[in-house]
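Entry 14. Two folds queued back to back today. First construct below, sequence then structure tokens.
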Amino acid sequence: MIIPPGLDVATTVLLLGCSTLTSLLTATLGAGGGVLLLLLLALWLPPAIIIPVHGLIQLGSNGGRAALTWRHIDWRLLRAFAPGVALGVLAGALLLVTLPPAIWQLSIGLFVLYLCWGPPLPRAALGATGTFAAAALTSFASLFVGATGPLVAAFVKQTQTDR
């Protein structure tokens, strides 16, 4: 096992366990595990690496779940979502390198508060323009706050009747 500098074996094993349990939470309930993992990572990891580490964990977890459920993927929605994702990631990457760490830390905290107590997405988020905008905004935000799954899920839930 490769242990990152600054972490001991016990903390590394604990974080691996947290990753597994929060992935199970999302698989069981449909959402929430990513945000919980983000908060748990913040207890032990330096702020500058929380989002990249969280992103790699999410890639593995969501990639595995997609591989298991590929027959149920709405490819039409995915094709509509992809161009906005590309634009959001590009815009976020250009801005991310110029922000001081305190701004991303504040972004993460405000994002978690919004997920808990913020209003639902407006109905205007539906349709081709809404899909593009939702993809761009959630992809942009993911570079700063990590777990945008609940926002994407709220959007997808409004576009489909079958989960």
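Second construct, same run, same settings:
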Amino acid sequence: MSRVRRLMTSPVVIGALALALVALGFGLYWFQPWKLWTDATVDESVPSAVAPAPTITPSVTPSVTPTATPTAPAAPRTVASGTLISHEHSTSGTVRLLKLADGSHVLRLENLDTSNGPDLKVWLTDAPVREGKAGWHVFDDGAYVSLGDLKGNKGDQNYPLPAGVDPAAYTSVSIWCDRFDVSFGAAALKKV
């Protein structure tokens, strides 16, 4: 018994155990394996631009106060769309690039279903969408714009394009894992 006790208290064994604990902690932080079993569902409605100011219609009779005629905001117009394909992880859903009445653009993910993972982003890119492993790593090779963190791995989500971004310069969308530089899934955008 004393031999086991001496072995367990030796500096080499204590150092190895400490190193193993640090490696385990780093591995858990880096890979976040629990995300494979957790889902985050987001259900955002289709965006609309702010309604333009009401039109004031002058009255014919001077004694009557002018009335405001409210106008409904114009519905967003789909300018491009695509279907998500799987890359590193099984991914499905559709992508629509919407132009709002105020001229701004929003990328909309609909019926998204992918794996959860660490450091997932939504990228608008100029890279071609390729099936299989050939498409896993192409999206950071050319021009891309990060639209932010993936809000959830399931559901319907909206990502506004930053001012000054020309959506015509980009041809695809990727659910990009920035930590491991790999696409979970992607869609080619086809003009409507």
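Quick look at the second one. The CA atoms of residues 76 and 100 lie 5 Å apart. The chain has two helices and 13 strands.
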